[in-house]
Write a structure and sequence with these properties.
By secondary structure, this protein is of the alpha+beta class. It has two domains: 89 residues; 239 residues, Bira Bifunctional Protein, Domain 2 (BirA Bifunctional Protein, domain 2). The strands form two sheets. A seven-stranded mixed sheet has the order 1-5-6-10-9-8-7, sandwiched between helices. α1 runs parallel beside α4 and α2 packs antiparallel against α4. The model has no long low-confidence stretch (mean pLDDT 85).
């Protein structure tokens, strides 16, 4: 056993690590001493030639030598890395007074913002927010809503049919009202709204789209009247357009309500004096509504002699366009970040 050779390498290592070394030289040393043919590795290979009584001592000396090298190597490496980092930081000082780089990002869509605002309002009044399928059956979209096959009102809606005129893309969210009433089994009061996407055959332009968001609502209970509908509509209008907003009803006709009304708000731009937004009338139509038709109540299991209710429907895009002065409905579906910035600014106002 050559203890002298082990001691010689140990003294050599201690001397080397007391010198100034670079990172590349440090890595070379690891190969020189612990590599495949390194000095310490070669001593380990000689273990087979050591006598049995000396193997234990020889092994301990070798482990001490290897551990000492690794310890000195790691200490020097850490010291060198800290020195290099400090030097780099000195060379790359950051002027924190400089303005940061603005990264363009999107913003919540104004249409989504308006829908959430209406949802929160109705939930505060005890309404549920309900969802339903966009691919719908004819009986829910038309028949149970008092629009039987062959009724001319079906033509006015220009429906997207998928299969044998029985499966279609819903042309309104009213089918969700029907499904909700059927679940009530003619015994449960209902307060619900359904925001959702609807589809109709239409040419896309500044004011029309083949797909649009509708927010329909339904209340079914005992002793419900047009006064309840008017009060609800007043609350929504003042929430969206300010406390000075006035509302009115005008007679209209829908197959699923009787009586039916058009709901108007006072023009928020001219305050009744007449302008281009209200077409010089002082009023703006925002939705259709009415008392639920007895046939619809009866079709869904509610006895119209006991139960009554009202229904209404808003076009979410129309509300957002009026509220935020947006002139083109296609703006809601664009992915232009410049438009998103406008949305972000309007939402913060």
């Amino acid at each position: 056993m050559n203890k002298q050779e082990i001691k010689s390498i140990k003294d050599e290592i201690e001397k080397i690590f007391n010198q100034e070394l670079s990172m590349s030289k440090l890595n070379d040393l690891k190969v020189e001493y612990l590599g495949k043919n390194g000095k310490i590795t070669e001593l380990s290979k000689m273990m087979k030639d050591v006598s049995a009584e000396d193997k234990k001592e020889y092994g301990l000396l070798l482990n001490e030598l290897r551990n000492e090298f690794n310890t000195l190597f790691e200490e020097y490496k850490n010291k060198l890395e800290e020195s290099l980092l400090s030097e780099k930081l000195q060379q790359e000082k950051i002027d924190i007074s400089l303005p940061g780089i603005q990264v363009p990002v999107g913003a919540p869509n104004i249409l989504e913002h308006v829908i959430e605002e209406i949802e929160e309002l109705f939930m505060s009044m005890g309404y549920d927010v309900v969802d339903g399928p966009e691919i719908e059956e004819d009986k829910y979209n038309f028949e149970l809503l008092n629009i039987p096959k062959g009724h001319p009102a079906r033509d006015a809606q220009d429906t997207f049919y998928i299969e044998d005129e029985n499966i279609l893309l819903r042309s309104q969210t009213s089918p969700v009202q029907v499904r909700t009433m059927l679940k009530g089994k003619g015994e449960v009061p209902i307060r619900m709204i359904c925001p959702g996407k609807t589809y109709r055959r239409d040419d896309d332009d500044a004011t029309h789209s083949h797909q649009f968001m509708q927010i329909e609502g339904l209340l079914v209970d005992k002793n419900i009247s047009l006064c309840d509908l008017k009060g609800t509509f007043d609350t929504v209008a003042k929430k969206l357009f300010g406390p000075d907003c006035e509302t009115r009803f005008r007679p209209s006709y829908y197959q699923f309500t009787e009586p039916s009304v058009e709901t108007d708000i006072s023009c928020f731009n001219c305050h009744g004096k007449g302008c281009s937004i209200c077409k010089n009338t002082g009023w703006i139509t925002v939705s259709g509504a009415g008392m639920v038709h007895p046939n619809v109540l009866r079709n869904c299991g509610y006895d119209p002699k006991v139960w009554s209710g009202f229904a209404f429907g808003f076009g979410a895009e129309r509300l957002a366009m009026l509220k935020y002065g947006i002139n083109d409905i296609r703006t809601f579906y664009m992915t232009d970040l410049r438009e998103a910035k406008v949305f972000d600014r309007k939402e913060s106002e």
